[in-house]
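Researcher: Sequence of AB hydrolase-1 domain-containing protein follows. Predict its structure.
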Amino acid sequence: MSLYYPSFKESREIGQGVYKGKSSIDRYIGEHAVLLTGFDKEEDGTEVFEFKNTSGLAFGAQGFGKLKRDLIISISYPKGVLKVDKIDKDGIGHKYIMVRGLQIHVAEIGAGSSVVLFYYGFPEMWYSWRYQMLAVANKGFRAIVPDYQGYGVSEMPQEPEKTTFLRLVNDLFAVLRNMGISKVFLVAKGFGVQIASLFAIRHQEMVNGIITIGPPSIPGTQFSPFQNLSPKCYLSRWKDPQKAKDEFNCLDPKAIVRKIYILFSQDEIPETCDGENNLDLIDDSLCPSWITEDDLTFYGTWYERTGFSTALKVPLSLDENVKLVNQQIRVPALMIIAGKDHLLKFPGIHDYIQCERVNKFVSDLEMKYLPEGTHFVQEQLPDDVNEAILTVMSKHSLL
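Model: Prediction complete. Tokens:
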């Protein structure tokens, strides 16, 4: 049985009735995970996939009545569906939540009352937290990872250039409300740290604690360490839309993700000369052993669908002007420092951590140092990161 990520256009048949129209099927998928149980093709060439409902009720609010658990439904589906076999055995479920007209994909596993919410950075998606999702679920937690709009399995916004950190914070709030979740423990890395930090400030009542890989920060404030970047730094180059377009259009998505994993796994900040392409300078033979061809294929396949426009927009909004009355995180916090993360070499990061500016931003902060860790430490050293997360959970009586 293979798990599919549906984005339905029209229903052909649901239960005993026939209902056509995007809203009906979107509502169903917005609330339920489904598993593929069969496949067929009609005379006109329409591909029909048979799905099994795995979660229970549907359509109650629209008067269609209750669908029994394990009901088999058949759906007309457009071509080009991506099958992901490898996550079936892990038991990770998938659903869509409608947020401001966009379908936001959420991966989840576990049925505990305590929820751990993971947020990632560029160029990742929910999949980069797979090891941690399983680890916390095995300890009785419910793990969820939303894909940002325009990332992974989530729907693309019509105007990617308008995507901001605050918009993603609002998306997260809407997803949690839709799922009936009132409290979460946040775990974040990359630019997801800034989203999680903002959420912890704006919605403190919903946050049990926060764990960040790298220093917690918020853009456009004194607590933003990403300032005074060299014009030769890859981030400076990618902030130029034309240069970013030129660089990311020269290779197929899987090759780009491979090169970014190599680039970001170095412990020095790569710099280019005028006219040079960051990705052209990367030796593919240096790809880390802990990222497999299957992993790269997974990322590459989804980026073939979305492209990199939205994916690049958010992490490069490091100077976004975020105005907050309160600029302090007041929940228990752990900062995991990966010793070989090249971000530690960015101007201002060392002082931000060593001079304790970060402690002014986070009132109750602990630190865990992983000397061999690189930028993708949660994939590189999953056991170490899992242990750090679960230790914090235990300390704060969440285990």
